[in-house]
From TrEMBL:
It comes from Caenispirillum bisanense. Substrate binds at N11, W12, K13, G174, S213, G234, G235. One of its GO terms (biological process) is glycolytic process. Involved in the gluconeogenesis. Catalyzes stereospecifically the conversion of dihydroxyacetone phosphate (DHAP) to D-glyceraldehyde-3-phosphate (G3P). It catalyses: L-erythrulose 1-phosphate = D-erythrulose 4-phosphate; D-glyceraldehyde 3-phosphate = dihydroxyacetone phosphate. This is Triosephosphate isomerase.
């Protein structure tokens, strides 16, 4: 069996003014300094805070990432941020293809793939998000939807070192509804199997996160599942103690 170091990632989404963000990071850094951890911890603040949060995390093990990036390095793309810009201010990761981006900005798998490729070219780890809607699950299409999203969103050259996959069933995000452990286990096993198409045997080392209403009281059970290698946490990542408690659920 391959040991995969769990990744506990916080997606702050469009939340956090400077004071909130810095306080949150201070609290997490204090916890991380209190001892050695058997997990990696990442926060993805809004773009406005990436530089300051990265500066505040310097000298600690806390990783900092963006929530999205453009597929291009630079140019006439008003309002967008490139992976190179995130890297330049201290990010080591970037989320791509979150379902809120897929929905709000009509991002296709092809767009997500281009963004992940840009993240790699810039030297960032791409956290590629996939997940079915409730209608798709009800129609029995969860596995086929997730498989096609995975295979169409992973760029050439994706490896377990430069890529993390996050399975986030859309219906479980921000709703308090968590997928059952059996459902999560089934989808994660399928993701690892399909990832072999892209990475061969290296897929055994790929980290696959679960996201969707992860809280301190359900984290342990989810994180104990064989192919669950961490969590992508929204709401509960905005509170130091909740986010820290989730990380304590790592096996
Ligand atoms: O979308 C998510 C993380 O990217 C999950 O959000 P919640 O944890 O708030 O359900």
């Amino acid at each position: 069996m391959t040991a995969r170091r769990p990744l506990i990632a916080g997606n702050w989404k469009m939340n956090g003014l400077r004071a909130d963000g810095l306080k949150l990071v201070e609290g997490l850094v204090a916890h991380l300094r209190s001892g050695d951890q058997a997990f990696d911890m990442l926060v993805c603040p809004p773009t406005t805070l990436v530089a300051e949060v990265a500066a505040a995390a310097t000298g600690s093990t806390l990783l900092v990432g963006g929530q999205d990036c453009h597929a291009k390095e630079k140019g006439a793309h008003t309002g967008d941020t490139s992976a190179w810009m995130l890297k330049d201010v201290g990010a080591s990761c970037v989320i791509v293809g979150h379902s809120e981006r897929r929905q709000d900005h009509a991002e296709s798998n092809a767009v997500v793939k281009a963004k992940a490729g840009a993240a790699h070219a810039a030297g960032l780890i791409a956290i590629v998000c996939i997940g079915e809607t409730l209608d798709q699950r009800d129609r029995g299409e969860a596995l086929s939807v997730v498989t096609s999203q995975l295979l169409e969103s992973l760029p050439e050259g994706a490896t377990p070192e430069n890529t993390v996959v996050a399975y986030e069933p859309v219906w479980a995000i921000g709703t308090g509804k968590v997928a059952t452990p059996d459902d999560v286990a089934e989808v994660h096993a399928e993701i690892r199997k399909q990832a072999r198409e892209k990475m061969g045997d290296d897929a055994a080392r790929l980290r696959i996160l679960y996201g969707g209403s992860v809280k301190p009281d359900n984290a342990k059970e989810l994180l104990a599942l064989t192919d669950v290698d961490g969590a992508l946490v929204g709401g509960a990542s905005l509170k130091v103690e909740d986010f820290w408690a989730i990380a304590q659920g790592c096996p």
